[in-house]
Specification:
The protein contains eleven helices and 16 strands. The protein is of the alpha/beta class. Bound molecules: zinc ion. Zinc ion binds next to loops.
Length: about 450
């Protein structure tokens, strides 16, 4: 490997020598049940995990804070439901102060995971990490306790070797990423940094953008009647099947997806999309359904031209108009227009320039480590978007593992990629925060 300074090579060797410790840390993190928060449910083992990381990082000299933020800090935000609190789900910030005069780097990762069902389908216990075939298996292995273990180990390695950074390096682990995003929102509202690395499973690509999403509910009225009686015309009081009217709108949505798929492509993201995800309709087995609703999950692209408006407003208007036009062509729906409702849970898209210093630093590190160093994007929202949109902190995803294994059965991450990522993060911190002797 060329292009590395002697100190950078020492850091890489040190991390490679700690592979066993890195894997053990990840296995320990997987062992905490941190299935994400649902309203009204008690906390799981989030505080135990955060305390474990706090102790480790404090032992390496970090100034550590583990605390339950005041709910007022996030109340009223569109992502956060009324009555939300952080009870027994503390957030962690561990700061390694720099010597002064350098850029500060934030390492941010979420420690909550999604539910493990169908648990019986796993080849081993999702909360009891297994190491086999060169991989660590368990819930959160790639999304994203693997990335969290990497960023913790990277920071520890720099401290252990006494590498002096000019700027601060902060390790920040949050909860709620898989539910409300409230943990990341606290970070955005309380932390300052010149850039952030979020080690979501990018396969060591550098992701500079993500799509936003909206949740729509369409409700259609039909007219009740006996299902066994031959129908009359609706104009003469006949029954109207609300489920069939929703099927008609599902076809309209299919054409909208086709329209979006053919628009000019984003260099790093798939096209905007609208996925019908839930249908609820009907009242009785022998009755024409009088009511049916259709829920849709809409993913949309970042759009610099829409700046200033609420994220997604343009997409909301287009969706409503598209449904209204389709309805106009149906005599019943023309007179009984479907209602479109926007459900809570919308999240904004985000994008940063590939010329940002943190992006160039990571691409340079990847190339100097003999890897491709590719730019990319994440199809779906993540906490990094909050750091970008709410705090103006340029945030990238750069982490170990395959995003397609996230949220699935038998989630896993290659050990070699964990080591490679920890090395990449450590070197990026040295270059971005200006370590003594850090320039190649
Ligand atoms: Zn994630």
């Amino acid at each position: 490997v060329t292009g590395l300074t002697a100190l950078e090579r020492r850091v890489c060797e040190h991390i490679a020598g700690r592979q066993h410790d890195l894997v053990a840390l990840l296995c320990e993190l997987i062992g905490f049940d941190t299935v994400t928060h649902t309203p009204g449910a008690p906390a799981r083992e989030e505080s135990g995990l955060q305390r474990l990381l706090a102790e480790r990082l404090a032992a390496r000299g970090a100034e550590v804070r583990v605390a339950e933020p005041e709910p007022a800090l996030v109340a009223g935000h569109p992502m956060v439901p009324d009555g939300f609190t952080f009870a027994e789900r503390p957030q962690l910030v561990a700061r390694f102060p720099g010597a002064g005069g350098g850029r500060t780097l934030l390492l941010n990762g979420h420690v909550d995971v999604v539910d493990v069902e169908p648990r019986a389908a796993w080849s081993s216990d999702p909360f009891e990490a297994a190491v086999r075939d060169g991989m660590v298996w368990g819930r959160g292995a790639c999304d994203m306790k693997g990335g969290v273990a990497c960023m913790v180990l990277a920071a520890e390695a720099l401290a252990e070797l006494g590498v002096r950074l000019a700027g601060d390096l902060a390790v920040n682990t949050v909860t709620e990423e898989e539910s409300t995003g409230a943990g990341g929102l606290v970070s955005a509202r309380t932390l300052r940094a010149d850039a952030a690395i979020v080690p979501e499973p990018s396969g060591l690509d550098v992701w500079v953008t993500c799509r936003g999403s909206l949740l729509a509910r369409i409700t259609v009225e039909g007219r009740a009647g006996h299902a066994g009686i031959a129908p009359r015309h609706p104009d003469h009081g006949g029954a109207v099947n609300a489920i069939e009217k929703v099927a008609y709108l599902v076809e309209a949505i299919r054409r909208l997806r086709e329209e979006w798929a053919l628009r000019p492509r984003h260099p790093h993201l798939p096209p905007a999309d609208c996925v019908p995800t839930m249908v609820v309709g009907g009242e009785w087995l022998v009755s024409y359904p009088a009511r049916c609703s259709l829920d849709c999950h809409i993913e949309f692209l970042p759009d610099a031209a829409a700046d200033g408006a609420r994220a997604g407003d343009r997409v909301r208007r287009e969706f409503e108009a598209w449904i209204a036009r389709a309805a106009d062509a149906d005599p019943w729906l023309h007179r009984h227009p479907p209602e479109v409702e926007w459900l809570p849970g919308a999240v904004p898209p985000a994008e940063i320039s590939s010329a940002e210093p943190v992006v160039r630093t990571l691409l340079g590190v990847e190339r100097d480590l003999g890897r491709p160093g590719r730019l990319g994007g994440l199809d779906n929202w993540h906490d990094g978007a909050t750091l970008i949109v709410e705090a103006g902190i340029p945030a990238v995803c750069y982490g170990p593992g395959d995003i397609h294994l996230a949220h699935g059965v038998d989630e896993r991450v290659p050990v070699a990629e964990l080591v490679a990522c920890a090395q990449g993060i450590a070197l990026a911190a040295m270059r971005f925060c200006d370590a003594d002797g850090g320039e190649p």
